[in-house]
Amino acid sequence: MVTSRQIKYIVRILVWGILGFHIGIVVLLNIPSVQNKLASIATAELRKLLNTEVSVGYVEMGFFNRFHIEDVLLKDHQGDDMLNLQRLTARFEIKPLLDGKIVINSVQLIGFDIRLKKDNPESTPNFQFVLDAFASKDTLNKSPNLDLRINSVFINRGQISYDVLSEAETPGKLNGSHLGLRNLSASISLKALRNDTIHAIIRRLSFEEQSGFQLKNLVAKLTADNKQLNLSDFSVNLPTSTLMLDSVKIHYDSLQNLPKLTDDVHFKGQLNGAFVMKDLATVVPAFKELDYPLDISLAFNGQGKNVEVPLLSISDNRHLNIKGNASVLNWDANRNMFLQAKLANLSVTKAGINYFMRALTGSVPSILQRLEYIQFKGDADGYLHDLQVSGLLQTGAGSLNANLLINSDENYKRTYSGGLKTNDIQLGKVLGDNKFGQTQFNIEVEGFNYQNRYPESYIKGIISSLDYSNYRYENISLDGIYKDGGFNGHLSLDDENGMIQLDGTFNTVQSVPHFNIQTSIRNFRPHALHLSDKYVDSSISMNLVADFTGKTIDDLNGLIRLDSLSMHTSDSLVYSLDNLELTAGQVGTHKEIRVVSPFLNASVVGDYSYQNLPTSVMHILQKYLPSLLGSIKTDSNQM
């Protein structure tokens, strides 16, 4: 019969035997020749598995729970370096393995260079063979039990590059086809990773991108299970910016539905921080001169692909202030996304206009300088392809009410239709012309857009008043199409000092301007309208038809017909003319002008300048009719 003393002796012998065996193995694994043999075995097995060139410089195993490897080189199937690794060290626990768990106490990844690439966007990447080699061959077990814990992951001096070789490089600008991270450093803890649970802490993450973008630090805590996800203590530090997310909570029916953002996914959170736009100059190069910090506050909540922003506030506490709220339905539906937004205040001071325009474009348009400041309050409601926008724009030159429908076609070409109304715009201040003063108008536009550098639109409305040359014109109506720098339609003025009706088309910006108009003028008083110092108490009436082309009077080609011309003073008729027709054009290589009227029928053919033609006629009259010319001059002087 075995006594208890004998049992203790046997157990003691077994313990010391196992411990001695373990120590022996550890000692054996630290012998250089054994380590070299392990490196050779690892190299051979990886070459066989990956079917490519692999080398492992050093392998060390310690106490069965520590793994250390150095100088790893892995080439892709084209023979180019894909991975260079200086050192990888891992410590793990053995006991949890018996329970189907993986517990890794620490992982250190020091000095690595990963180079990923593909020939073109459709080709297979150079690392695909690695994924295929380590992919599970078990097609039956689709959901293996996963229970992983990594207490500490330390990464230092890392480099990762990704290139699509067929795509153009953009030095100084972030490019998804040519990414290059360097000085990658991180400290991460994966507290739990199971099929239905994740708990991770990012204590530090930083890198530099080859475009110039820098992530100084990222910190976050993430917990998730089958019903909810919590993101807390999230902050991002850029060179001059800090953004923080208050606790973000996401609730859902199943973890698998979270990436799909189905309707059972509910989320809520808030973003705060001080953001300097130049930190994103590698994404938007125009931001490179914008170095003022913007205080940002953004609250959001939503369900699925619908999001509501009850609070949006952006301010630099000096020149820019934005406050509003919005809601978006089906944010991934492109043109069919539905938007409701209210902008409670958008204000930019004169100094702000100068700062932002100089930073973004290098100069400040003179019209914006004259506006002094900009304030806007308004609403937007509708699908992106038919968005209704209304609001009040206020500037140092006056205010403008707008109610517009913005239409976007399948090519995202936008047109604008709706109403514009103002009672106090200082048009002279807007145009930089002191001859203009205040104006009031109420007009409708339809299909407004830009074509060939010029605005294009159907325009209809009333200009109630327009100050010009210290006179207020009233009751100007327009109805027509403005296109390619020209107008085709109807213009009219119904003022006590003149009634004008104009129908037709004219374009003054073409290489050869064209006019085809019919005009009726009644009781036109140029002196009262402050257009002339002459013709006091005189009024002019006439009908005019013009159909001609020409950039200057010397290349005039066409017809001008005038009839029913009369000029009245306060008590008498001074002059009248039944009709006059002037035709100008070319006869061979010579100019020709014809005049037909009740008192004169004439034609002139030759090489001459219309500007000098009257002087030439006077010289001819002086030569052949000196006495008549003298009487004409005398009469003219008496007048």
Count of beta strands = 32
Q: Report the mean per-residue pLDDT as an integer.
A: 84
User: What does the largest sheet look like?
Assistant: 32 strands, mixed
What gap, in angstroms, lies between the N and C termini? Answer: 156 Å
Q: How many distinct helices? A: 8
Strand fraction equals over 45%
Choose one word for the global shape. Answer: elongated
Helix content: 10-25%
Structural class: alpha+beta
Low-confidence stretches: 15-24, 631-639
Over the alpha carbons, how many angstroms does the gyration radius reach?
Answer: 42 Å
Would you kindly provide a written description of the structure presented here, covering whatever features stand out?
Helix 7 crosses helix 8. The chain has a 32-stranded mixed β-sheet that branches. The longest helix has 26 residues. A hairpin with a 4-residue loop joins strand 15 and strand 16. It is elongated and about 125 Å long. It is of the alpha+beta class and 639 residues long. It contains eight helices and 32 strands.
List keywords for this structure.
single chain; 639 residues; alpha+beta; 32-stranded mixed beta sheet; 32 strands
Quick summary:
This protein has 639 residues and is of the alpha+beta class. It is 16% helix and 54% strand. It is elongated, with a radius of gyration of 42 Å.
Write the layout of secondary structure elements.
Elements: H1 4-29, H2 32-50, E1 54-62, E2 66-75, E3 81-92, E4 102-118, H3 128-134, E5 147-164, E6 178-194, E7 197-209, E8 214-215, E9 217-224, E10 228-237, E11 242-245, E12 248-251, E13 266-276, E14 293-303, E15 306-315, E16 320-329, E17 338-348, H4 350-361, H5 366-371, E18 374-383, E19 386-395, E20 398-408, E21 414-426, H6 427-431, E22 436-451, E23 454-468, E24 471-483, E25 486-495, E26 498-507, E27 514-524, E28 539-549, E29 557-568, E30 573-587, E31 590-596, E32 601-606, H7 613-624, H8 626-638
Parallel strand pairs: 4-5
Antiparallel strand pairs: 1-2, 2-3, 3-4, 5-6, 6-7, 7-8, 7-9, 9-10, 10-11, 10-12, 11-13, 12-13, 13-14, 14-15, 15-16, 16-17, 17-18, 18-19, 19-20, 20-21, 21-22, 22-23, 23-24, 24-25, 25-26, 26-27, 27-28, 28-29, 29-30, 30-31, 31-32
Helix pairs in contact: 7-8
